[in-house]
Fold each of these.
Amino acid sequence: MLRSWRTKLKLLLATVTLAVLLSWLYLFVGSLEYGRFLLPPPCLGSQPARALEQEALASRVRRVEEENQQLRSQLGQAPAPAEGSEGSPAWGASAEDRDPPRGESGNGTACPRQRPVHKCELLHVAIVCAGHNASRDVVTLVKSILFHRKNPLHFHFITDSVAHQILQTLFQSWMVPSVHVSFYNADDLKASTCPLHCPPEVSWIPNKHYSGIYGLMKLTLTKALPPNLSKVIVLDTDITFATDIAELWAVFGKFSDKQVIGLVENQSDWYLGNLWKNHKPWPALGRGFNTGVILLLLDRLRRLGWEQMWRLTAERELMSMLSTSLADQDIFNAVIKQNPALVYRLPCFWNVQLSDHTRSEQCYTEVSDLKVIHWNSPKKLRVKNKHVEFFRNLYLTFLEYDGNLLRRELFGCASMPSPPSDQLQQALEELDEDDPCYDFRRQHLTQHRVHLFFLQYEFLAHPEPTDVTLVAQLSMDRLQMLEAICRHWAGPISLALYLSDAEAQQFLRYAQASEVLGARRNVAYHIVYREGQFYPINLLRNVALANAQTPYVFLTDIDFLPMYGLYEYLRNSIQQLELPQRKAALIVPAFETLHYRLTFPKSKAELLSMLDMGSLYTFRYHVWPKGHAPTDYAQWRTATVPYRVAWQPDFEPYVVVRRDCPRYDQRFVGFGWNKVSHIMELDAQEYELLVLPNAFMIHMPHAPSFDISKFRLSAAYRRCLQALRDEFHQDLSRRYGAAALKYLTADRSP
């Protein structure tokens, strides 16, 4: 009898345990009122850790059920307890019988078993990007994707001409393995390129959104992207990923046969029409959907006649709405309102929207819930949000993250063919690591990332034939020279800045805070990202030179201030000397001061007076007179017309030449022979060297660079520089034959 009561007691305890576990499971799977925001549908499979926890809990419940069955068998012929007591048959039912039918989803359709994404499957991502600012934003987005990704990627960029140039150069120089990039001209999508009587694409749609006409481009993706592309993830540029994008790609496997678009519900009250009095938004299904993250099944959309569908909807709604307020998002929502079966509702952690008055806090309870963060407020990082500091820090992590670290191979997947990458790898393998000058040769082969036109720049549609651009390079420690140069030079400027990712953002803040720099739209800043131990001075010069927009360039260094009015003087000289009809290099005489504070001379007469008083000197007369002595400063003092000088060994003046002049030799890195070699090649190509009589520039003092210190202290450094000089002479001889022998003889003379 005692044993029987003990058995019944065990059964009672087991039943209570089962009840507690079932209650916990009920809460865990998201049956609370807002659970659908916090948890994926049962078959989503996008949170493997949570799915494993659910499976473990269900397994525990099944074990308790088995124990109950064993206890019942021990009771033998004991009478069945009354209904509702601890032995109720209701508790004897299996856990699966009491769960909601398997296959139910938050989209109201039976969802198939999710197909896992193979680690080598190519994922396609489409992004609309136009202008300088969006090109900067998209780099942060791409970094966040590359940081988490485990799959090959194909980025499809719909761009204007500015973003195309910037991003094409960036990705070509970035050379990330298993990443392919395609570009599509947004200008072709603004208006139709088909024959007459063909309707325009999106230019006919009035749009009040700050994104302008480019905010409508996502409507045209079925036509813009290749016809054999069946599906794509579409992203805004103000997105940050906090997980592997393959998890989002896997959601395509959950679409029903009728669903073609995956979207997250809008997290503000915009489409409810209650934000202010007389607020009349476009029609939407419930709260509407946000189009910052879209999953598109392109093949199905094409079969449905998507282009005609959205066009007819837009035409109908514009009759009363007159314009869109949220660009493509209004039209997407109007289409879905009429065809709700088309949409697959993504869990909202795939688009946590950080606009004002957002409900985004319901999308996450802990960091692991976050998948995609969307800065969809015009205020961007200054938006008001309870957890904005956390989101801002996550964004800044990728903003300042060293992009060089993302050049990692995807092991186990065949790399996409990349001839430039293969050639570089072969050249690196041919280097001799025992060579004492290995580091110099390795630096020469380093592939630096290049971000052209980092800030707003107004391109010259038709530059004048005598126009000239100041070309220079600098690093972070010379930023203070920028404002002074802009005050002295009114013409266009092309600068290459050697910065880390974090320093690039410091420079951005500096430039945006400067009234002097902010007032200029003809200064082009090109970021060359730091990598390696030497300063790649001639690479930087070539980047700035190649991206000048005028027929002529003034090749200078950032430590020099040009005389006031030099820009106009050079333009007049180019015309008067008929430079377009002759091959010539105009020399701007260089001087220097040892004083950080200088009353800058306003004329040649004032400069000569300061030269006589000892407050100015000819450049480097006391440490390297050979570099500028051939300018013949004595003749310059009294000259009134340009005069010709001959090349001499180690001559390195600052010159004005045509933009198509020879490029600098990039083997010379750090300090030494970087300008000498360039002037030597100008002479080999028979450029006239003409000194301008009324032009001058003054070098401002600064601390010695790290590279010049290495040159002075290291004999090995100097030996390697000599080896590079010898190799340069040999190359010069091969290109110019006997005419180049004089350089070799002159270089070896005492």
Amino acid sequence: VSFPLQEVVSEESEEESNGVNLMEFSDEILLHILSYVPCTDLVLNVRRTCRKLATLCLDKSLTHTVLLQKDYKVNKDKVKQLMRDIGKEIYQLNMAGCYWLPSSTIDHVTRCKNLVKLNLSGCHITSLRLSKMLSTLQHLRSLAIDVNPGFDASQLSSECKATLSRVSELKQTLYTPSYGVVPCCTSLEKLLLYFEILDRSREGFMLSGQLMVGESNVPHYQNLRVFYARLAPGYVNQEVVRLYLAVLSDRTPENLHAFLISAPGSFAETGATKNLLDSMARNVRLDALQLPKAWINGSGLLQHLKFNNPFYFSFSRCTLSGGHLIQRVINGGKDLKSLTSLNLSGCIHCLAPESLFRKADDDIDSSILESLVASCCNLRHLNLSAAHHHSSESIGNHLCQLLSRLKHLLSLALPVCSITDVAANVEKPPTASNLVPQTFGRKVRIGIQTYPRNLGDQANQKIESSVFWALMGSLRFLETLEIIGSSFSSAMPRNEPAIRNSLPPCARAQGVGDSEVAAISQLTYLQSLTLAQLPNILTGSGLVSIGLQCQHLRTLSLANLGMMGKVVYMSALMDMLKHCKCLRDLRLEQPYFCAGAQFFQALSHCSSLQRLCIVSRSGTLQSDAVMSFMANCLEVIMCHMFMGESLTVCKNLQQSIVRSFQADRPALNVVIFPLLHEDLTEVIRDVPMRHLDEITLFKSRVAEEPPNLWW
């Protein structure tokens, strides 16, 4: 709710004179309005305005579930008062990512005697505090925690272990080799594991994947229905997850229906994992599946696995061919109306009949995509990024035309080269802008074609006839869209130095630019947009159209648009930002980006902005402009800038921001650091996982996990 309810009540007489009085609305309508107000505001502020609101704010529909995970203004005192006032009424409490709260805050959760679901991922908590808290939560059935260095399961009391024995859902993020509380959870039905263990300690010592002394207890998987593991890069993470899988390989749970392992890079299959997969093929029927690419490539596994009513498949980075996809997964066109999420990111041959003699950039077989679309007609999330999906010249068989039949899509990720019109691409000779090398450094001055500045002019150029324009027009309810160059790689990988050079864009993508971006403005309900490596951006005029038409846009990520030696779209970006009133997250990655006074003045129009990340090789910034922006935009709690400035400039600015704004913004997280500095990876490891995973690191997020994996 954008208006303070206190003012509404205090101006009641004025409202009555105008014939409108909020307090005359029915309780049902008022409860619906109040459901959009953060619980801390309801309990600590709004309910003190009048008797009616005092009663409504404590209604069970508003206090049953308390969400603090993105309430960046909440502090320890507010949590303490909240738990004191309504602790006994809370059944579900989500404090995920509240990294700014001191560990002593967790002590107040003990007032919530009736808690059934509790999410403390990203919160600071010790073994002793966890033991004390869980000892009082006898009704708890769902728990999410972090396991940090120093965790000691032997410090858990018998009462705590009794509570854990009744927990059926556990989400555990590991920052150290450990079983955590898994051995205590003897009734597990859902287990989610996030492995974030670094290969080296801060002191530079190599870590081992062996578990700590006293952690030889065996996990209990006999009732397991969902097993999910996501690994960050690193050998230690692979070692530890194998220890978790070893028990599964001995005896596969009969009720297992979702088995998902997300592992970057190479994660080799072993004898134990092969036994596990063979056992799964014999004994279970799955509804969701994701495996490391090495476990699928070259094996006949998919031919033997049995599926029930699958809702999620991920074959990310696998060499699975389209022929195998149709025959083994879709079963030659079998009805898969239950499938709602499909991730084929980096699956370079998934739309080709075979992969043996095929080049990665050969044309796709439209009949395979047609079978996929027909069988999986209820798809809501589809990821086809990180591959060259080139359509042939056959009329009516373009990838965009076939995807337009998926009327239920909510999120979609495509490679840039897949959205270009084949005929236009063939007939149009290379323009001067196409011939400019996509490299860094000084550019030769060339003539630039004049592009339209608004949507009306573009319409006059008949861009509505393009297949991508038609696709955007047919997916009117799309909320998330990613258009990413097939060869794009971010300058900020996870645990490595910054990448200095990037591969050139695909030849088929050379013509994708302003008109295609303008087509996106048809998506009225768009909430999240990612554009990366669109080489033919000349003015960025399409961005202005998006700013004007997509009024629900909350997340925007732009990377390497147009020529790499100059930010050609800066003027259009600043015009766009003036219209983005709902924008909360902005990520910009572009060489030579100038974060100056004009940019930050335009960005100040984004009154809802909370998180800003700029990654720019040889980029510059104006410290005074940054400080002024932070003073004007009171909601901003994250400012990450990795530029070309000196370490001294970066440190001074970071310290100034923290010193000026930390007191009023408890969740403030500021990292300003030279992009190419050798200590960048050490700085990155201190960034809260919430920000690192959601915005700072670039990645495709469409169908990354099954929908509703965790609340």
